[in-house]
Amino acid sequence: MNEATLVVGCSEQRPNDVLAYEVMGVAHGQVLLSRRDGATYTAATGELSSYVQSRDCMLRLVLAGVPSSLRPGVGQALIKRWNLAWGVEPGADIGAATSSL
Fold it and tell me: Which of 6, 40, 58, 68 is surrounded by the most beta carbons within 10 Å?
């Protein structure tokens, strides 16, 4: 896992909330995370997944049942909704999220 990677998962401090975090560092199977609120969090590497991989997997599963003519609009609406739920900032650098965990 690289630093500045956008990940989705549950932190030890917020175990019931699936949120997006930026990776600050990794050591001994633990990940130091940050969020836009300025707070830092920790999580086990197994509790997190790449934002891009999670988003793309969910899109494939959901859009499989949507008529092809509606997929582009539905896909964009789903991404906006998931970003809102996960706390991804509108201007987040998603390009850094392509690294796998």
Answer: 6
Tell me the C-alpha distance between 98 and 86, whole Å.
Answer: 17
In a domain, 91, yes or no: no
Neighbours of 23 (CB within 10 A): 23
Please report the pLDDT score of residue 90 as a whole number. Answer: 73
**7 and 41 Cβ atoms separated by less than 8 Å:** no
| pLDDT, mean of each 10-residue run, the chain (101 residues) | 74 92 89 86 90 93 95 93 88 52 38
Q: What is the pTM of this model?
A: 0.75
Residue 65 within a domain: yes
**Distance (Å, rounded) from C-alpha 93 to C-alpha 78?**
18
If one counts the domains in the chain, the total is: 1
| Whether the Cβ atoms of residue 20 and residue 37 lie closer than 8 Å to each other | no
